[in-house]
């Protein structure tokens, strides 16, 4: 498991090769502000081999946050992260391993009949109540997450997942009443508090796509204060002092900067100003870490950035400038970049040799 000392040792080994604030505080110690994601790619042996090589190169060169999810590439991504952790010389206790649960995963390949697969593997054995399933494969019920978390521990071959995300909880809002969804979240937070107390996870969070980008009236909107109230309540029910909901993951890049630009959350109670604030501002005031997904717009921004924005960002290549946009946003800890190619790892980790923009320079981009 990641430890405070292990992650600081990793920083001491690599910190001098990078620019200002490349390593940033992240539970239980520090994490690189460029992380490796494992979402894209077909569920094949070839892509497994590419990821294995890329993850090893990342760990060997200054990236100590690896992000995956149980459903990515039919569980192959989690398994390949586990293989790479096993094979590397880098200490396990210096690496933050993050995964997610919410979408019921296939196993190794896509079945011919996904509906039948879900019914046979999850509904008939009693793992999931079909009433709680949205879009045929999404559930955030505590019993389901408990089951998925055990499988993730086994796929990753680790005794603790450092950061466990509830995956796209806003998907539930497409078919279910918001109050029911917040109740489900609270019950799942209770489970995650228990698993945290048992040492199976380090901290937990929400990984989202729509929830923290859209306006309050939108169907998939989540209120961050309400989510945090539910985490506080869950901790109280379980009898722990401080809740372990410490991280938000959300898409953020030049084209999807809503978490910074849109004031969708109420002002924090101790704020000087009245009126709504952005998710990044609310998260910062609440002491949450923010990790960005799709930092390269799923590849599109690696070759093309609006010239006026590119001109403000440091980097030798377009991809590096795009990554430096995400890791410069105030309140962001780590920009995740999906990379199954070792050449991309080398290019992307070198983004961290440039200093990020300061807060006022970042603000100025939008003026
Ligand atoms: N809702 C959620 O929870 C959610 C949603 C999306 C993503 N995520 C997480 O966030 C991570 C990052 O997002 P993402 O993978 O969707 O998108 P991304 O990081 O924006 O883009 C990844 C794509 O960019 C390519 N790429 C990487 N570096 C490059 C470079 N220097 N030059 C050209 N192309 C480059 C990758 O190719 P190669 O593979 O060939 O290197 C891959 O196809 C994911 O992997 C996942 O862990 C979470």
Q: Could you characterize the architecture of this molecule?
A:
Strands 3-4-5-6-7-8-9-10 form an 8-stranded parallel β-barrel, surrounded by 6 helices. The model has no long low-confidence stretch (mean pLDDT 97). It is α/β, with parallel strands linked by helices and 367 residues long. The chain has one domain: NADP-dependent oxidoreductase domain (TIM Barrel, Alpha-Beta Barrel), CATH 3.20.20. The protein has 13 helices and 10 strands. The protein is 38% helix and 15% strand. It is globular. The chain binds NADP nicotinamide-adenine-dinucleotide phosphate. NADP nicotinamide-adenine-dinucleotide phosphate binds next to strand 10 and helix 12. The site of NADP nicotinamide-adenine-dinucleotide phosphate has 29 residues, from strand 10 and helix 12.
How do you describe this structure in short?
The chain is an alpha/beta fold.
């Amino acid at each position: 498991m990641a430890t405070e000392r292990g992650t600081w040792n990793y920083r001491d080994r690599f910190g001098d090769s990078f620019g200002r604030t490349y390593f940033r505080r992240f539970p239980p110690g520090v994490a690189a502000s460029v992380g490796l994601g494992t979402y894209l790619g077909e569920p094949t042996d070839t892509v497994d081999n590419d990821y294995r090589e890329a993850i090893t190169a990342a760990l060997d060169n200054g990236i100590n946050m690896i992000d995956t999810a149980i459903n990515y590439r039919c569980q192959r991504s989690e398994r390949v992260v586990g293989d790479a952790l096993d094979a590397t010389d880098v200490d396990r206790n210096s690496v933050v391993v993050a995964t997610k649960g919410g979408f019921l995963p296939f196993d190794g390949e896509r079945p011919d009949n996904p509906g039948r697969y879900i019914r046979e593997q999850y509904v008939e054995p009693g793992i999931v109540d079909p009433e709680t399933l949205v879009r045929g494969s999404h559930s955030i019920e505590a019993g389901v997450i408990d089951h998925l978390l055990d499988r993730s521990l086994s796929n990753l071959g680790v005794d603790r997942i450092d950061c466990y995300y509830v995956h796209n909880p806003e998907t539930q809002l497409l078919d279910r009443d918001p109050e029911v969804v917040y109740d489900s979240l609270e019950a799942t937070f209770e489970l995650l508090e228990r698993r945290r107390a048992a040492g199976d996870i380090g901290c937990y969070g929400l990984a989202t796509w729509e929830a923290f980008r859209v306006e309050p009236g939108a169907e998939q909107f989540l209120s961050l204060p309400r989510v945090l109230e539910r985490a506080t309540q869950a901790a109280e029910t379980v009898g722990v002092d401080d809740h372990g909901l410490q991280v938000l993951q959300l898409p953020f890049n030049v084209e999807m900067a809503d978490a910074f630009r849109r004031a969708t959350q109420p002002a924090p109670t101790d704020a000087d100003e009245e009126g709504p604030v952005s998710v990044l501002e609310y998260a910062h005031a609440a002491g949450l870490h923010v990790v960005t997904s799709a930092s390269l717009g799923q590849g599109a921004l690696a070759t093309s950035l609006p010239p006026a924005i590119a001109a403000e960002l440091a980097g030798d290549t377009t991809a590096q400038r795009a990554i430096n946009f995400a890791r410069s946003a105030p309140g962001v800890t780590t920009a995740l970049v999906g990379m199954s190619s070792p050449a991309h790892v080398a290019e992307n980790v070198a983004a961290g040799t440039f200093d990020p923009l300061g807060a006022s320079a970042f603000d100025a981009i939008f003026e």
